Amino acid sequence: NAGVTQTPKFQVLKTGQSMTLQCAQDMNHEYMSWYRQDPGMGLRLIHYSVGAGITDQGEVPNGYNVSRSTTEDFPLRLLSAAPSQTSVYFCASSATSNGEQYFGPGTRLTVT
Amino acid sequence: AQRVTQPEKLLSVFKGAPVELKCNYSYSGSPELFWYVQYSRQRLQLLLRHISRESIKGFTADLNKGETSFHLKKPFAQEEDSAMYYCALRPSGTYKYIFGTGTRLKVLA
């Protein structure tokens, strides 16, 4: 099993550009989340999903969209990138709501 | 407001010394608490959770509801314990995990 995969590993965007961060898992997990990690702020939840077709907002959802059309994939879309979205983004999945979260390797995004 | 506080950004100890990484939480219900660890160039991974009441890699953590704490302890630190440690809270009935800001542990030879 590949576990949780994220692409790309690195990305540089200009302010105003849009892009999609990809996340996939091959463990048939129902629960998936997107976090951003910023220095001194730990991990903050952006959006999460408790199953295909079901998504909800986390702590810092503004500027991001998600969808969950399949169990495997949970893409994160930046609608109009801003320098404040410069961060490391992590995707995670778990089999149950209180089970171990398996994290992806992260995507380092820089917005200039 | 629901919150997880890790007061120390950096904790340095010598090899063989005891370690305690502090975690305090603010939550009115019955919390589920976790410790996650990120070793250098590795993914974030679960270390332990309070419902398991287990010891992983010599680490233990006890939930103290009176003090709203979930401190991570190890009696004798090892160099390979050097990593970033995050405490996390899952409010009952949700999947909205709340992470602390993390503590970097450095174990000195």
Write structural notes for this entry.
The complex is a heterodimer of chains A (112) and B (109). By secondary structure, chain A is an all-beta fold. Chain A has strands at residues 4-7, 10-13, 19-25, 31-38, 42-51, 54-57, 64-66, 76-78, 87-94, 102-103, 107-111. In chain A, strands 2, 4, 5, 6, 9, 10 and 11 form a 7-stranded mixed beta sheet that branches. A 4-stranded antiparallel beta sheet of chain A has the order 1-3-8-7, with no helix packed on it. In chain A, strand 9 and strand 10 (102-103) form a beta hairpin. Chain B contains no helices and 11 strands. Chain B has strands spanning 3-5, 10-14, 19-21, 24-26, 32-38, 45-49, 60-61, 72-74, 83-90, 98-99, 103-108. The termini of chain B are far apart. The chains are: A mainly beta (112), B mainly beta (109). The A-B interface holds A 31, 33, 35, 40-45, 48, 50, 56, 58-59, 90, 92, 97-98, 100-106 and B 6, 9, 32, 36, 43-46, 49, 51, 86, 88, 90, 94-102.
Task: Outline the biggest β-sheet of chain B.
Answer: 6 strands, mixed
Uncertain segments of chain B = none
- The helix content of chain A is under 10%
Number of H- or I-type helical stretches of chain A: 0
Residues in helices of chain B, as a percent range:
under 10%
Structure summary, number of beta strands of chain B? 11
Query: What is the approximate shape of chain B?
Result: globular
Number of strands of chain A: 11
> Order of helices and strands of chain B, N to C?
EEEEEEEEEEE
Strand content of chain B: 35-45%
Shape of chain A: globular
N-to-C span of chain B: 40 Å
Report, as a whole number of angstroms, the end-to-end distance of chain A: 36 Å
Oligomeric state of shown chains: heterodimer
Overall mean confidence score, pLDDT of chain B:
94
| Largest binding interface between chains | A-B, 25 and 22 residues
Counting helices, strands and paired strands, the structural category of chain B is: mainly beta
- The overall pLDDT average of chain A reads 96
